[in-house]
Amino acid sequence: MDLLRFITAGSVDDGKSTLIGRLLYDTDSIKVDQLETILKQSKNKSEGEIDLALFTDGLRAEREQGITIDVAYKYFNTDKRKFIIADAPGHIQYTRNMVTGASNSDLIIILVDARQGVIEQTRRHSIIASLLAIPHVVVTVNKMDMVHYSEAVYNDIVLDYMKMAEQLNIKDVTFIPISALNGDNIVKPSANTPWYEGETLLNLLETIDIANDINHTDPRFAVQYVIRPQSEDLHDYRGYAGKVVSGVYKKGDLVTVLPEGIDSEIEAVEINGEEVDVAFAPQSAVIRLKHDIDVNRGNVIATQANMPQVSQEVEAMLCWMDTKPLTPGNKYLIQVHGKTVRCVVKEINYQLDVNTLQRHENISQANLNDIVNVTIKTASPIVFDSYESLRANGGAILIDETAFTTVAGCMLQ
User: Could you tell me which residue ranges the Tr-type G domain spans (predicted)?
Assistant: First the structure.
């Protein structure tokens, strides 16, 4: 059974938490004791109604204000698939939280209030989805019950969003008219929208093809640990444990260990302690090489026919996540998979306006939630691909060396 990671996004009060609560409730994914607690806390309990948003709004401040502040993760499964849901906050000041939740998502659900249509926050979240190269976008037009399930209202929103999607080069977009509160088109088709011939949200989530989203043509293996048992029966054993970030690996492949650039050949590939014919993304595996060479955590093993970039200077799009501003000359740590090196931000090239896509140059600093393009100089070479061409090997984070906290998410160029 495969796993789908998806995130919900939208403006404040668009119904993100209610939608997730409805999915969990209608798929019987809520434990009895949790359901009893929510029933006691529901605002409409006197009328026998459940406040579905309480299933995800776990912080006290969230429940008091009726908003989502932090990213809430929920897990559930059906007979067809497992799911990890990230419920992202809608407020502008929590953009960094939304970026964090979306960075590993296979799919994003963008909610649009049927009464409001496509608004500024819809555009902001769509731009972020485009920047993060999320493969699948589902636009759910929520609160259709408040516009009397009007087909005309729904069609106008679809047309408006498609114009924006073309501008952002978002290719895979699906539209579903729903009412998260009433459950229309969430798990079962709704009689209130006879004009809608598409599938329900749950059916889409269960059946959407994500296998083709994984790159199996550009082999990248990130070494996480060197295995040297040095026991009597495994005296000469040396294996490199890690994750197949992308591509396929098999015995006999000619490979290069980066960033050092040392060539070798794969002697064996192991999974769960047994030799296998092939390992492919996103499996964890152990690779053994024919030659006794120096390989360490943070190295990347790539096939010689298709090599990533190796450089000490890289251009990146950053989402700044710290209250302390970013200014050129600041020193940090940059982490790409298991490799962490010191670096300095040489220059802020421009700031991206997430509402208009305009580039603002001559920027002296980046503040909390800003998205900027920067040039980074590293103390030693890093191995990467451009985020646009290979998302799995194009992401990184900046870390405050003193506090060891993440200050920015990076999309390497």
Answer: 1-220
Query: By the 8 A CB rule, do 146 and 13 touch?
Result: no
Mean pLDDT of the chain: 86
Q: What is the pLDDT of residues 151-176, one digit of tens each?
A: 999 999 999 999 999 988 898 999 99
Taking only Cα atoms into account, the Rg of the chain, rounded to an integer number of angstroms, comes to: 24
- Domain holding 315, by residue range, is 309-412
Query: Residue 34: phi, psi to the nearest 5?
Result: -70, -40
> How many domains, in total, are found in the chain?
3
| Closest to 176 in 3D by CA, of 262, 245, 88, 107 | 107
Max Cα distance, the chain (Å):
76
Q: Which amino acid is at 16?
A: K
Within this chain, do residues 12 and 133 fall inside the same structural domain, yes or no? yes
User: Long-range CB contacts (< 8 A, 24+ apart) of 166-174?
Assistant: 167/357, 168/126, 168/127, 168/130, 168/357, 169/130, 170/126, 170/129, 170/130, 170/137, 172/135, 172/136, 172/137, 173/137, 173/138, 173/139, 174/136, 174/137, 174/138, 174/139, 174/198, 174/204
Cis peptide before 325 (omega within 30 of 0): no
Q: What is the pTM of this model?
A: 0.82
Strands 395-400 and 405-412 turn out to be antiparallel
